[in-house]
Amino acid sequence: MSGVRDPAFWKRFSVAVHMDEEAAPTRPDLKHSDSWLTRQHRKKSRRTWVCWAFWILIPAFVAGVIIAVIWVLQSGLLQKVKIGNGNGTVAQPADPNGNTVVGGS
Q: pTM of this prediction?
């Protein structure tokens, strides 16, 4: 590969580059809030808050359910609720007429 043989090449090249730089529109200065990096930091911050909120609210919800179940059991509210007449089991439900069902169907 040989070098450029025209002695005025580098002068013309340099002038062309300078003219191109002057003619090119300058980029407007971006506001700090418009930068990509700032948006990424904002997204990361939002994601961090959502994650913390999720992991705090889930145990709080579970604790609330446990407290509600304990309160209902201790208040005796479920003892007042009657399902069936009390003679049946899960495998053999009670007969509504009070007859004991022996066997299958």
A: 0.42
Looking at per-residue confidence, does 101 or 19 come out higher?
19
Find the mean pLDDT for residues 66-71: 94
Give the pLDDT score at 41: 92
The answer to whether residues 94 and 88 touch, using CB atoms and an 8 Å cutoff, is yes
Exposure string of 31-44, with b = 16+ CB inside 10 Å and e = fewer, is eeeeeeeeeeeeee
Using one digit for the tens of pLDDT, what is the confidence trace for 79-97? 776 666 665 555 555 566 6
Return the number of other C-beta atoms located less than 10 Å from residue 92's C-beta.
Answer: 13
Contact 38, 32 (CB under 8 A): yes
